[in-house]
Amino acid sequence: MKQYIIVLGLISEEATRSFFGIKRYAQVKFAFTINNISVNQHQMMFLTILLTIGGVIIAIIIGNPIINDLRREHWRRQPFSTRWQQFLEQNVPIYRHLPFLLKQQLQSHIQVFLAEKQFIGCGGLDITEEMKLTIAAQACLLLLNRNTLYYKDLSVILVYPTAFIVPREVKDNAGVYSQERQVLEGESWAIGKIILSWEDVKQDTDSFGSGANVVLHEFAHQLDHEQGSTNGVPLLDSKASYITWAKVFSQAYQQHCSKAARGESTVMDYYGAKNPAEFFAVATEVFFEKPRLLKDEYGQLYEQLRNYYHVDPSEWSRAT
Ligand SMILES: [Zn+2]
To answer: Mind telling me which residue stretches traverse the membrane in this protein (predicted)?
Structure first.
């Protein structure tokens, strides 16, 4: 009996990540056994080349996430300068309210975020360190305590000096489409980019606690899109979680729409009544900016957001 054993490759990567106490170990072994097959030298060589190419492709697919993890771990370990810490303490109010350990975690996330995402100034705006830190700090607030992908579909953040104008195709009640120009302070694209008005980012950051925060809003849309569509349902961990989420959010959304229609006072902006995706983004703003008020008005909704974001802002100092 002829037996050929072709070992294509052995890839052994052992990486220990102290972050969140997660230890990772990956070992990939490719081995193929061919029994009772009569092959000549050329066929054998062809088969070996074919399997080697296949093995390399598989190794790249499996190896990329491991390399990404190692690279991010390297960035997370970079020292966070005193100047940056002072800047956040003085200019990003929500940072001051965080418990010490969350501050440290946020600093690590900011390092990764700034290393991976590109900032581009538009409309004559020069991007400064202040702009990058202000945006990154609030974007990374949504990643705390989570096994995050760091907004995997996002690569570029475009920043305009003020609100920007975009053309939009709108449909009236008769179903007729027309073009109109909308003035926006922020916009999240499903793939690749977020657009922000620096004037509005600065204003919302300075008035933390007002309930409005364009950075939290647009980055919540990015999280919403992680499961493939932007519909108010982000990536959850189980079927049961999706069922509970759908029930609680549907109920709260209907209540909010009714309040908006009646002009009734509510902790959330009426803009959340536009559709479920906007409701999730607006609820995220209020969850971090007015957690106790949201908890009082929409207790179950608050609980779902607390489970999803893995933090409880109502326990942070000076929360309203
Ligand atoms: Zn929105």
So the answer is: 44-67
What is the distance in A from the centroid of ligand 1 to the CA of 222?
A: 10
* Residue 177 bridge partners (DSSP): 171
Q: What is the pLDDT of residues 2-39, one digit of tens each?
A: 444 443 333 333 333 333 333 333 333 434 444 555 55
Interface predicted TM-score of the whole assembly (ipTM), two decimals: 0.99
CA distance 3 to 1: 6
How many angstroms separate the alpha carbon of residue 270 from the centre of ligand 1?
12
Spacing, Cα 25 to ligand 1 middle (Å): 39
CA atoms within 13 A on the CB side of 140: 27
Q: Any bridge partners for residue 121, and if so which?
A: 159
| CATH value of 82-315 in 3.90.550.10, 3.30.160.150, 3.40.390.10, 3.40.605.10 | 3.40.390.10
